[in-house]
Amino acid sequence: MAPYEADDNTTGKQDGDLRVRRRRAARYVVPVAVMGVAAATIGLVPALADSGDPDLPEITAQQLIEKIARSDVQQLSGTVKISTDLGLPDLGGLESGLLSGGPASGDDEAGSSADPSAKLTELVTGTHTLRVAADGPDRQKLSLLEDAAEYSLIHDGKDVWGYDSRSNEVYHATASESADQSAKEVPATPKDLTDQALKAVDDTTSVTVDGTAQVAGRDAYRLVIKPKQSGSTVGAISVAVDAKTGMPLKFTLTPASGGAAVVDAGFTQVSFAKPAASTFDFTPPEGAKVTEADETAAKAPEHGQKSQEDLAKGLEGLKVIGEGWNAVATFDTGARGGLPTASAGGELGDLGGFLGSFGDQVKGDFGSGTVFKTRLVNALITEDGKVYAGAVTKDALVKAADAAK
Asked: Which residue ranges traverse the bilayer (predicted)?
């Protein structure tokens, strides 16, 4: 998405400066505030829209979990609808840039629009339709359908291709390069989401089988996962598990606060037949701009590299406070003074005030800071540069920060 541009071009330098500050906000601060969204949100689902309750043999929760674990579907094709509503603040169309931690699309310094590390973060907000296909571990394809356009990510042997039909741009990497890993880190199917959710199952979790459902024309069991602890923002996770193959067909996460699902991903059509070999064929179209993964790394803006390096250094000291669903991840950014202000070299101007307007100011034994909230993941940035993030309430974050003092 392009950054917000005012219709009135006479607004002058003030509006221009605001747009610059927004772009810099995306690069420097907000990715830290919502750093847990992609991982924790998509790692943690009940409102299953089914067309009946098939009569299936009884099964225990443990047996159903084991069935999922044994599932080894190697070949499939189908259509997935995924809706995500994190309740993120509107920053003028910069959501993709915020969540990827890189330049927003339309920024002068943006890389290829076909780069999967940025493109697939669009799944973290809104409703999208995907076509997926797989033929073993070395051949997969995911296509994100857009208005009059399509983005495709194809893994065929050693090659990974990203193609954005809107811009006619192509991104190429080998399977061993980071671009492939970036794509894998963005769960896009019910199985991806369920694998993450099951990692959270422990003594702090209630797991039950809640009847049956029919999804994409297939009979399925409903597995419901709920936190036993208070303080978590997660209400429940519900997974529709294919009765025959054990593959998750639908995944829905509802927040403890109620309302619409935060994540709702499910097959609307699925086949377990071997996809045609041509499904995974790709040749860059004539006239397309092709970007190699190593070229993107070489051209990365120096300040962008530095911000990512600083974040990586901070994550090296990542610690976890608490357990189960109330676990809070914390690390020290090394940036004293909390949100950036004009005192931080002058470059960011009054960015701290701008960003602060999207958060809640809090105080405790730890000192003071700002809590940035979504409907699922919340993050506290303290005045001494520490970050506390998790799928927990604001009060739980303050309590964790006080305990760590």
From this structure: 28-49
